């Protein structure tokens, strides 16, 4: 071999090594374990002896007491101390879907922790649906809570309970809880059959309640649920979503027929306005704690593709349209990408879109692969492998493959957010300061430029702006606040890449 040929071979080998190192440089298993651990930092109630995030202590031990109900437990949704059941239920559904779809890839230890995270939510959701004729949808007066910066262990703001009923319905919250319980029943079926059966029977009852007494909780509870988790997309999508999960859990024709009968009405329901920003792309392109449209299409498409169905129902075509709304090269793309490659949609806490849509990309890629199908976006053909590639690009961006070389997961890598918008993380733990901090007592800690004293390991923040810039500031909550519904979809995504690292 001549010198020139030898040099060319060395260059090619070097490039291959760099490429492999680049792909393998992200420890998806480590990120997975941290993404699940995050949920322990969001726990409300009496913490178990197995609690690993030990700077957190017991909190909100009298939730529901004033109305004669036990509403202790569950999760704080974000950096505040309110329990909003609408996003909590969605986060639970996504954790359960992560296990249903990718649980075998988690490994026994992380699967056990994932089940613990799900059960912490479902135990609470069972309590929230235990009073006949009522579904509790929120604990904590949000304005009072948001005006204080105090540890959950200290909070003295009103722990007001809010419920929907036959007279004041809340179909979106009730149906999302039904979806969460149905999905979770599948997760526990092989490890705790009695608990699984209880989850499923409750899911049936709550779904029936949501469907029979239709209406949005915006109408009855608007002053307390808006603008925090106002329902912008209507409650019909949650009803179809809940029926879809009940069919998946039971295989009963009633729920399948419900999905098929009611799906057509979703096409006319377009998300119009989120935080004052108009959405484009239509309902088929939306998925998150509020809008379930794309999730419904992907979920239902699995049954249709596996049965080689010739049904005229729009699920597969709408799932394909969703894919075409996301792929960077698609002529019908309706999302934006930053220069560094992060997916963007209107609304705050942008990483919720990157994680939720990446989950759908991976799930749909699996269904397409089994059916030996590809997606056609006009003249662009997208293989299942291409969907995986786009999802990986989002995960790698989050973990550090971005212009700032920064991980947006707290505790992962060497460079990650230090000043997240989170009360418990930013205030000294009871281990460091036993004296109570009142409503105003935490303000100096909020205003300081010092890093948070407690690491909320695994927390995904809202993320950088569309120019790939990130201000590591508590005050910039759009960028620096973590939420359960940013993390939940990523659990499944990381499990997949843990078993497919390159």
UniProtKB/TrEMBL annotation:
Keywords: Carbohydrate metabolism, Cellulose degradation, Glycosidase, Hydrolase, Polysaccharide degradation, Signal
Catalytic activity: Endohydrolysis of (1->4)-beta-D-glucosidic linkages in cellulose, lichenin and cereal beta-D-glucans
Claim: Transmembrane is one of the keywords in the record: no
EC number(s) on file: 3.2.1.4
List of catalytic residues: 421, 472, 481
Signal peptide from the UniProt entry: 1-22
Gene3D superfamilies: 1.50.10.10
Record GO biological process: cellulose catabolic process
Boundaries of every Glycoside hydrolase family domain copy: 28-494
GO molecular function: cellulase activity
Source superkingdom: Eukaryota
InterPro entries membership: 6-hairpin_glycosidase_sf (IPR008928), 6hp_glycosidase-like_sf (IPR012341), Glyco_hydro_9 (IPR001701), Glyco_hydro_9_Asp/Glu_AS (IPR033126), Glyco_hydro_9_His_AS (IPR018221)
Pfam families: Glyco_hydro_9
UniProt family annotation: Belongs to the glycosyl hydrolase 9 (cellulase E) family.
Name of the protein in question: Endoglucanase
């Amino acid at each position: 071999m001549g010198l020139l040929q030898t040099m060319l071979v060395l260059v090619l080998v070097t490039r291959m090594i760099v490429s492999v190192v680049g792909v393998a440089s992200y420890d998806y298993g480590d990120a997975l374990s941290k993404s699940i651990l995050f949920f322990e930092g969001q726990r409300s109630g009496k913490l178990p002896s197995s609690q690993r995030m030990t700077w957190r202590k017991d909190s909100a031990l009298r939730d529901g007491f004033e109305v004669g109900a036990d509403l202790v437990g569950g999760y704080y949704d974000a950096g505040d101390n309110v329990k909003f059941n609408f996003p909590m239920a969605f986060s639970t559904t996504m954790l359960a879907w992560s296990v249903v779809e990718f649980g075998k890839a988690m490994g026994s230890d992380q699967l056990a922790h994932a089940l613990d995270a799900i059960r912490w939510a479902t135990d609470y959701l069972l309590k929230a649906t235990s009073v006949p004729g009522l579904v509790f949808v929120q604990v904590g007066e949000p304005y009072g809570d948001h005006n204080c910066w105090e540890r959950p262990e200290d909070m003295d703001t009103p722990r007001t309970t809010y419920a929907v009923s036959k007279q004041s319905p809340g179909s979106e919250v009730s149906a999302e809880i039904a979806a969460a319980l149905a999905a979770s029943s599948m997760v526990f079926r092989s490890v705790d059959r009695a608990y699984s059966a209880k989850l499923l029977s409750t899911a049936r009852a709550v779904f029936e309640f949501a469907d029979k007494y239709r209406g949005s909780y915006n109408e009855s509870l608007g002053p307390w649920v808006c603008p925090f988790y106002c329902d912008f997309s209507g409650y019909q999508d949650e009803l179809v979503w809940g029926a879809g999960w009940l069919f998946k859990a039971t295989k009963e024709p009633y729920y399948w027929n419900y999905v098929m009968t009611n799906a057509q009405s979703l096409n006319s329901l377009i998300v119009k306005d989120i935080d004052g920003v108009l959405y484009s792309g239509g309902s088929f392109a939306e998925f998150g704690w509020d809008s379930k449209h794309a999730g419904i299409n992907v979920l239902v498409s699995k049954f249709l593709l596996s049965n080689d169905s010739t049904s005229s129902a729009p699920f597969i075509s709408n799932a394909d349209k969703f894919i075409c709304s996301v792929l960077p090269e698609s002529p019908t793309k309706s999302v934006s990408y930053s220069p560094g490659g992060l997916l963007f949609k209107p609304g705050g806490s942008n990483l919720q879109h990157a994680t939720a849509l990446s989950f759908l990309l991976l799930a749909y890629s699996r269904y397409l692969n089994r059916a030996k199908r590809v997606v056609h976006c006009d003249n662009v053909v997208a293989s299942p492998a291409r969907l995986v590639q786009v999802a990986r690009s989002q995960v790698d961006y989050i973990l550090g493959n971005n212009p700032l070389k920064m991980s947006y997961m707290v505790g992962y890598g060497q460079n990650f957010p230090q000043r997240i918008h989170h009360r418990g993380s930013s205030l000294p733990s009871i281990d460091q300061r036993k004296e109570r901090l009142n409503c105003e007592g935490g303000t100096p800690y909020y205003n300081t430029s010092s890093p948070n004293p407690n690491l909320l390991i695994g927390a995904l923040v809202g993320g950088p702006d569309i120019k790939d810039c990130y201000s590591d500031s508590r005050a910039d909550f759009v960028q620096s606040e973590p939420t359960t519904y940013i993390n939940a979809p990523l659990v499944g995504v990381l499990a997949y890449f843990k078993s497919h690292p390159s």
